[in-house]
Amino acid sequence: MNAYTSFVALGDSFTEGMSDDLPDGTCRGWADLVADRLAASTPGFRYANLAVRGKLVRQIVDEQVAPAVAMAPDLVSFAGGMNDVLRPGCDVGAVAAKIIHAAEELSGAAKQLVLFRVVDPTARMRGSARLMPRINRLLAVVDELAEKHSAIVVDLFSAKVFDSPALWAEDRIHLNAEGHRRVAEATLQALGHEPEFDWAGPVPPMAPASVASRVRSDLRWARQHLGPWIGRRLTGRSSGDGRAPKRPELSPFA
To answer: 124 or 232, which is more confident?
Structure first.
């Protein structure tokens, strides 16, 4: 197992840690959990997280890759594409080209690149089966880049545990604290760390909800989450507009 002295994480809300909220209102997330474990065994360990919620792959590449390359970290992670895939006019070829460019740049600057095979949404999100051709293209790109750049791949797509609502926040789009904990463990095991638990193991079954409860939950979700999301799409806005990365510089992690 390699000892990494620095880690830079790039991406969108998945890597920012959205919906794994700390008492002070900031996000934690899987990348922070990975950094915490790496720092525990590596004196002087440094960490930066450039991810910002709502970013498309083009924005991740344009805004985050150059700063990450300049940091020349031991370990760098790149995750993105689902925000693009969810948009009706997604040009998956252009998205793939941007990811390929990012991997070329990052693998040349860092000792180790980490990529992700995205979570399969089809058992959790109604109508998401229509997205599978795009998602399959992203998966293929990740697999090709892993071979070309000797990247470590964290395969979340094959883990059926993410079908469980127990790992997702109320908005049904972002992982909750337990979901992020499992992604962190999956990443650490992919990096060669000894398992602390079975990250892909089943979660305790949730008590069945009544029809009335499900209807109320769906209405609340549509009002609080779906409606605002549609509004942002129609007006060209993003949840990340004006938001800076939470850890823009490599600094000691404590």
So the answer is: 124
